[in-house]
Amino acid sequence: MSTSRLLIECPDARGVVARVAACIADAGGNILDADQHTDADTNQFFMRVEFEPGPGLTERAFIDAFRATADNLAIAFRLRWADAPARRVAILCSKSTHCLSDLLWRFANGDFPGGEAALVVSNHEAGRSLAEHAGVGFVHEPIADGDKSLQEQRLIGRIDDAGADLIVLARYMQVLSADFVERFRSRAINIHHSFLPAFAGARPYHQAFERGVKLIGATSHYVTEDLDDGPIIAQRTARVSHRDTVSDLVRKGRDLERVVLADAVRLHLEDRVLVSGRKTVVFD
Amino acid sequence: MSTSRLLIECPDARGVVARVAACIADAGGNILDADQHTDADTNQFFMRVEFEPGPGLTERAFIDAFRATADNLAIAFRLRWADAPARRVAILCSKSTHCLSDLLWRFANGDFPGGEAALVVSNHEAGRSLAEHAGVGFVHEPIADGDKSLQEQRLIGRIDDAGADLIVLARYMQVLSADFVERFRSRAINIHHSFLPAFAGARPYHQAFERGVKLIGATSHYVTEDLDDGPIIAQRTARVSHRDTVSDLVRKGRDLERVVLADAVRLHLEDRVLVSGRKTVVFD
Amino acid sequence: MSTSRLLIECPDARGVVARVAACIADAGGNILDADQHTDADTNQFFMRVEFEPGPGLTERAFIDAFRATADNLAIAFRLRWADAPARRVAILCSKSTHCLSDLLWRFANGDFPGGEAALVVSNHEAGRSLAEHAGVGFVHEPIADGDKSLQEQRLIGRIDDAGADLIVLARYMQVLSADFVERFRSRAINIHHSFLPAFAGARPYHQAFERGVKLIGATSHYVTEDLDDGPIIAQRTARVSHRDTVSDLVRKGRDLERVVLADAVRLHLEDRVLVSGRKTVVFD
Amino acid sequence: MSTSRLLIECPDARGVVARVAACIADAGGNILDADQHTDADTNQFFMRVEFEPGPGLTERAFIDAFRATADNLAIAFRLRWADAPARRVAILCSKSTHCLSDLLWRFANGDFPGGEAALVVSNHEAGRSLAEHAGVGFVHEPIADGDKSLQEQRLIGRIDDAGADLIVLARYMQVLSADFVERFRSRAINIHHSFLPAFAGARPYHQAFERGVKLIGATSHYVTEDLDDGPIIAQRTARVSHRDTVSDLVRKGRDLERVVLADAVRLHLEDRVLVSGRKTVVFD
Q1: Size of interface B-C (CB pairs under 8 A)
Q2: What is the pLDDT of residues D15-25, one digit of tens each?
Q3: Complex-level ipTM
Q4: Which of A174, B199, C13, C228 is deepest in the core (most CB within 10 A)?
Q5: With an 8 Å Cβ cutoff, is D222 touching chain C?
Q6: Cβ neighbours for A153, distance < 8 A, ≥ 6 positions apart
Q7: What is the pTM of this model?
Q8: Which residue of B has its CA nearest to D28?
Q9: In sequence order, which ranges of chain C are alpha helices (DSSP H)?
Q10: Is B30 on the interface with D (CB under 8 A)?
């Protein structure tokens, strides 16, 4: 990655774009791409700027130069500098391995620049072989004696040890605690196997089959306290018919889930997603 | 239409396909297309056969010949004979005319063989000009003195006078009574402007906007007692983003609604839809 | 339309975004949206900026203020000021009226802000009734005595008389002269009924049927000297199967053509399309 | 697989459906699904019947019982009996492994009932690790001394030794000889990384990039003498924009290729594809 990315959020005001652009230019940066959005309900302004830092410009120097403008406009910002190391990603899964398999293939084949698979954690053994074949560490953290809380603490320990910055729930079938959610807010991506908000909760393909829908869907979203209710990052649908059994929906759905989860991971790793209340702004 | 269509429903049993095929062949008919489905939950069997009657074979004679087999296998059937007149269609609408306009264009241009627009009824005047330009009768039946029940009775009178066999609710924004629903069961098609079961009820595009979905949808379904819960005939989705306002969703949704409603009308007029409990079997 | 739009093209250089943003801010404008693209092959830079002019700022004053920057960076630009009148659109058609009907409905219902239907010209009478019902002037310009050149000159006269700025070929089935193409370069949009570059030329649905494709498509593009080879603005596809006859492809294709042509007209009227050699940059 | 499948091709004639259905019923079979198609150009009739054989009915006995009808109606047929062993599949690949990886995952996870991965052959070493991890034999058959003909003969030997019935070209980048094509006619499936017939031949993503299309596609087809011109089994498209580099097209295209190739393999293994001249009939 040879470009820096600046993500901005602030109350909307006249001239924000021009002032941010001027800051970057004055610091010797060259803007390659800038995208903006103002939420009409909250009047909150969002911006993503991708720029070449220019010779000699360091992250420290840029932040110092940008500070006054940021303070003045009440800007909250995140910066990923051009030479930042790849972000480490922890993948959590249970028994289904189609998303895990797909993600590992993509990491290995360069589909996710800016990220690297740091470890796979599962409450089952199903993913071990895939992880090991991909050269990624695998940790089995079963729920022992029904104590989910302890298991989650061990899981968090593993994630911290691995220095993971992004958590990907690749069909991880355990509800996460409020603590976990808070700790990884806007950094934990889940895939739900329905077109949310339809068929939230358990067994969405069974629900879809019962209802007789003509399309099934998949939804990737950030994890929040409310199950299947976090800000949506990506969604896709596929056609089904009366001929499809629940097993057929599961099979067709797997193709959706893989791509929709990979979409979200890529968008996140490219710093293209900002959370705005219950929604996302996706600068793609 | 030069072919006859036989629609069958019965408990599943060995040899139904062969016995029905034999009946048609023995009567001098030639099967052009046959499609079957067995509902795995109810073990109910559904079949659609399209056949050329053969020289001299009349509807009466065929029914007489088929009766014994039908009785023997407990078959309920519908028959549309090759020379049947076009079915008459009543279109109900309110203020939005995009679906009405689209349907009238399709009727006029031969997109719906086997059907003809019989009349347009509305609780508003908005559709009059379109209907009259298309040479289709327009009736304004407003809800006077807040008495919806009387208006609905007049509406049913108009439909009966026009000899309409299919009712298309082209964004008709009034809830229909249980009587109406019962009278036109599996013959009244509604378009709902969301991907059901998500966003049932009022203002689905507002709901979709609030939830921050990345796809919007439209659903055509038969009308039942439960609002927006009837058997689904067709669904489609389209991409949206954080940039889209509610107005944009409405605009993009119109394109979906038109096509999804037209899909359902065409499938119904071609006798391709059978109702199976809460679901449809669509032989397309 | 309450915002101004500035479209820019120039050789790529450091700081263009910042300098343009500064120009607008210094003139009292407030940038609402900015989008950029650099063509990697030609190193040409493209930008679209949407901004509120700010109180008292006139088009003349802005151009004067922008001139120096434009000259300095070799910027070619187009400006559409906030209070500019709707652009007038001439629709050309032949015998098929599905696109015409759709466009007229959209103009009448506010789907194309910034544009108005100025007139319909056709070498056939088929569109007259639709145009007149929509309150849009209709002109029949048949090809008399086989003299296409004279007909085209009369056609151009009609377009000029109507003050039309955008030409929409809504299934107009005549090849246009080099003169016509030059006169309306990047201002004449055609719909071709295939997924170009597949099935260019005559009878694309027949070609698609012969080849046995499983998807059909439609393509909207700017008209150039080379038939069906102009810069593509929008494309969509739809599923077909071995069951579909050529007539079915034509019917299904009409739904694609309407939407793909409307997409292009809307994008053009919102100043979202820039031509870059054989391609378009679409800032949507 | 507990059902038998009968695939039929013959000149169209009155009563074929009924007579075939009667044959199956008389032999004690129960038809679960029947699908038919008549090619309007050639008047050739195609049919696929799926049936339960019934107690005691053997393949041999059924063929004997069916022979007279088949001869009488000039029916060519293929039969796959309920207890037939899984068909063995040879996967050929070169350096790109995304399709190989996907196919192996699907075979291992039961996505392709009726088939099993028999071996992987490649002119490169890239696929070895994946194949071995999946427990599938891997054979490296490089083109030595530029002698493609010898390599192909060795390759055919490997396929024969493995008893493979279906050949899947999972991005195998070598042109096959007429001999090879003839030997595996309608049993060798290729994936081409474009929406054929657009961008046949080499480097289709580069061609698509040059042309500036707004959709890319992938096509699976049976291999014939004419490169990229065989009967199409499945196609899909995905949206792209001016922002996408050739690398982005390649990345997005991989997702299409995997699914489109898997679609074709599944349809073939379920005996749902019949070749009709340059086209396929796909009974899905």
Answers
A1: 18
A2: 999 999 999 99
A3: 0.95
A4: B199
A5: no
A6: none
A7: 0.96
A8: B15
A9: 16-26, 59-72, 98-108, 128-133, 148-161, 178-183, 204-211, 246-269
A10: yes
